Structures are given as C-alpha cells and as structure tokens.
Amino acid sequence: MRTGTLAAVPELEERTDEQLKSESKHRAAARTILGARAAERYDAQTARRYFNEALAACTPQERPYLRQMMKASLAQAERRPDELKEAMEKLGQAPPTGRQMLALRLMGLVSPPPGAGVAARARGIAILLGIVVVLLAAGYAMAELGALPFGGIGLLGGLLVGLVIVIAVLGVLALLGRRRQARQREAARAGPRPG
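Below the sequence we write its predicted structure tokens.
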C-alpha cells in the first residue's frame, strides 16, 4: 500500500461500516474500504459513490492508484471478469483464479447488473429456475436411491427429502466456502503488500 492517506487502509479494515462512515482523520482510506465492501456485495452505485468520495479526500499522488482500485472494484461489482483481471494485474496483485472468473461470469448471467436489459434479466431468471430444477432432480434421485432398499418413496415424499438433502449439501458447501475465504483473507493480510 502507498504511503499517505491510503496507508491507513490496513489498520481500518477491521472496523464496521458505521465506524468507517464516521472516520474523519483517514477519510480517504475509510471510503476506499467502504467502496470495496460495496463492490463485494455487487452494489456498483454505492461503490462508485464511496470511491469518488475517497478520490476527493486523497492526495494527488495517490489518485492514480486509487482510480485503479476503483476500476477493479467496479469491474467486480458490475460482473466484468476480464476488466477485473486486467485491473488487478495493473495494481500488482494476483489476478482472480479461473474458478473465481467462472463464478463471476456465472453471477453476471444469473444476476445481471442494474440497468441490464429485459432479455438479460429473463435469461437470469431462466438460468436460476433451471439450476433449481436440476438441484431438486438430483436431490430426488438421491432420496429415491436411498429409499430403494426400503421399497422406494413416493413422489411428494421424495421431493421433500430431496429438498432437505439439497439444502444440507448447499449449507455444508457454503460453510466450507466461508472458512476457505477466511483463511485466504488471513493469508492475504499476513503476506507482503504491494509498494
């Protein structure tokens, strides 16, 4: 991280959004963190507003670096994986992995950014419904397979048990994913920062 007002970013990262909003001494650093958090929630409008406030509060020497951070965050928020990769490389940070790029592309298809056309939104709804149907079918198949030695299971019972199986599997995957993200965040904090 650069020296100057943005040098305070690491020490402010643990603060809550409310604490960051009231931060006055390191306003640019606080607004940068708020913008990055909004981008992680895929809220491009809020992220852009916070980054613009950070740009107004930082020194002229820090503006090019902050603009690049803004570009990377907005590319993430607006689900543009290729621009995100390019911006991360220009920041000197590791670009997103292939899986992360694929997940961002899928997010762009399922949940298009605000302002996307009706066709993009309809496509997102159709993809989401397709995913739900496939997951329910897989859950029903597992329930049917598990109940086969006991004489099988009815359609409604199979769908209910299948739904429970799908919810359990998704819950376990979400828990494992969060733990993995927490480990990666800790490793990123412990690692060297770009200068």
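The chain has nine helices and no strands.
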